[in-house]
Design goal:
single chain; mainly alpha; Lysozyme; 9 helices; 0% strand
Length: 271
């Protein structure tokens, strides 16, 4: 009997503890799940903040790169803009070089071309005549150069041609006398029409180049005919029978003044 009752008593004493554990099991399970959920939510929040900071960092680095790129572009623009403007300014020059043959450039220092003796002579005569007769130096330089060309062409002393101009018209290219003589050398057109045909007629005598050429041609013809410059001058003035040769003497006096200037210009110039 005692052996049979003892197990029963032991079974009854063990049953209440097991029942208590069974009642607490749902609570324990709920607490476990709550703790697990809390840990899970905590992990999720940490991951979210980590992602946010990662995005902020990427945006920051992207902004820095963008600003750096903008700075590089700005600096490049400042460097390129002057070159671009300089290129725009050079466009007319480039166009001119394309249309016209460029001038030849010579390396080394620029030196003024030395004045030839004839140029120095003509310059001295031009300055003297322009000042003495109060005529434009530019105009006189053209008359002097033309007189030298005509003198060479017709074998007449250019100073004689210039002296005739001084006496006849005082270097007035549109001078006209009461008898019809015209221009610098007071050529009478009605006596020399054949010489004017190649120049367009008597109206051309008001052109300095034509007047000087025709006047020099007439002087040369008279020199050849009379073999004497004084007589040729008197004939040129229409005073062939005038015994004192007053006209020729005036021309010779003027030529003598010009000759002084020519001789002075021929002397070597000191450096």
């Amino acid at each position: 009997m005692p052996n049979i009752i003892a197990p029963a008593a032991s079974q009854q004493s063990a049953t209440p503890g097991a029942a208590a554990l069974n009642h607490l099991a749902p609570v324990i399970d709920l607490l476990s799940r709550s703790l697990a959920n809390a840990k899970s939510e905590q992990g999720t929040g940490a991951r979210r903040w980590s992602m946010v900071w990662s995005l902020v960092g990427r945006a920051y680095h992207g902004a820095k790169s963008l600003l750096a790129l903008i700075g590089v572009v700005a600096v490049a623009g400042l460097l390129v803009l002057p070159l671009h403007l300089d290129g725009m300014l050079k466009l007319p020059m480039l166009a001119a070089e394309a249309l016209f043959e460029p001038a030849t450039t010579v390396a080394g220092p620029i030196q003024a071309r030395a004045e030839t003796p004839v140029e120095r002579e003509q310059r001295a005569l031009t300055e003297y005549i322009a000042k003495r007769y109060r005529v434009s130096e530019f105009a006189i330089s053209g008359y002097v150069a033309t007189a030298y060309r005509a003198g060479e062409q017709h074998s007449v002393d250019p100073l004689l041609i210039l002296a005739v101009m001084a006496v006849e018209s005082r270097y007035n290219p549109v001078a006209e006398s009461i008898v019809g003589a015209r221009g610098l050398m007071q050529v009478m057109p009605k006596y020399h029409l054949e010489k004017l045909m190649d120049h367009g007629g008597e109206d051309a005598l008001l052109e300095p180049e034509v007047n000087i050429q025709v006047g020099a041609q007439i002087l040369r013809e008279y020199q050849r005919r009379f073999r004497d410059t004084e007589t040729a001058l008197q004939m040129y003035a229409g005073a062939f029978d005038e015994p004192s040769s007053q006209y020729a003497n005036k021309v010779f006096a003027e030529r003598a003044r010009l000759e002084v200037l020519r001789q002075k210009a021929k002397k070597p110039q000191s450096a």
